[in-house]
Amino acid sequence: MRIASLACGLAVSSCAYAAYPLITEDTATQGAGGWQLEGTSEVATHRSGRVTLDNLVLNYGLQDSADLQLVLPWYSGDLRSEGDRQVNLKWRFFERGPFSMGVKPSLLLRGGDPEKGTGTGENNWAVTLMGGYQAGDLTLNADVLYQTNRNTSGARDSLSHVSAGVLYELGPVQLVADFSREKPVDPAVDEAARYTLVGLIWAVHPDFGLGFGYKEGRGGTELKHSWLFGASVRW
What we know:
Elements: H1 2-13, E1 35-46, E2 49-63, E3 66-77, E4 81-82, E5 85-96, E6 99-109, E7 124-135, E8 138-148, E9 158-170, E10 173-182, E11 193-205, E12 208-219, E13 223-234
Antiparallel strand pairs: 1-2, 1-13, 2-3, 3-4, 3-5, 5-6, 6-7, 7-8, 8-9, 9-10, 10-11, 11-12, 12-13
């Protein structure tokens, strides 16, 4: 259950797929007809070993305020298995001055291995509500997520997540920090899982970016710390 808890915890944290390496989802979209392909990797160390979660994320702009996302995860290290796939619809439904709000319903399609904890063995769904505020070079984001977690391994059957992130722009580089809190996957654990993340996003080119981050876990999580790396290309 300890490795399974880490794998599921990483999956919950990744439901947002914000500007990597941030956990908190933002309200930005690709624009009508725009594409983005993103590859991410989180190398995590926890109390029972080490695991790496890689994601391939494809985004398509259905319209200026709405994106369709496909997420294909793969666990390596101690687990070595594909994860449950995701289909997300992200919609920014409110925008006024520096404020914006959005919602993202998600389908989580079984594909991982329940025995290893990389999948639930069942189909699930999630919904994320997010908000943002931009003032000059400073951007603040926050989100709330609820996820069903029907499974075959005795894990908690519903999960929740709240987080807040901040970005500060320095030319082509954005300094980022993120703070999140989640319900633990293990039903025997009452204390919330808490995460702190710091990192940067480097816009190498208007259509190509890199992200780097470091995350620490506290409270009801098996995660000790992890390193995050990502790259994205747009067209």
